[in-house]
What we know:
Helices cover 44% and strands 6% of the residues. The chain is mainly alpha-helical and 225 residues long. Helix 3 (88-99) crosses helix 4 (106-118). The longest helix is centred in the C-terminal third of the chain and has 14 residues, at 195-208.
Amino acid sequence: MTRSFEDIADRWNGRKRRFTDAESRLKYVNEVLAEREWLLIFDNYDHPDQFADICNFIPPGDGSVLITSRHGDAGLLGEVVQMSGMDEGEGLELLRRRTEQNLDEPLNRGSAIKILRTLGYLSLAVDQAGAYIRQQNLPMQQFLGQYESQKEAVLNQKHIYWDYKRKLHGEDQTETPLGVLTTWELSIQQMTSTHVTQGVVEHLLTVAAFLSHVEISESLFKEYA
């Protein structure tokens, strides 16, 4: 986070002012933003304990802060907006843009809707499906057949200009392209961050993987309560 502010300071300043350390660069960025409207985005703020001083990076003045996070404690920083899946229209538009196929054609549109429902309207999964369809030059109607037979290949598919990237633990500057499987693994790692909860969470998710997403009986889990 500090490095990002240092880059901003150097880009804005050119060679007009000499900075002695990271704190002087942060102060410069705050001075500039105090005189204008701004939007500051903290993306993937999933480990608040590693950035407990985040408020020090929020400039004064007339601006807004957007924080994306899977961690519940991030909600203490402001108003929470829970994100849900896309609706059907948004999903069809994403598939149309990624595949460049005509979804006004009834057969294509029907297949596209089935794809959205199968993928749970999850934007990342839909984007990867679109990348797979385009790179394989695949008719929309044939996608689900291939998806069922090789899900791992489909959900790891990314095009060369993939937007979803993140620096993972142990990496310095390299950003790793994220797919559905990688994102799932990150979520699992976060939920099993302590040795005490790891076995319980992994067992629960393993059991849940064999269940339908509706009408799950509480009696299946009562003995673990």
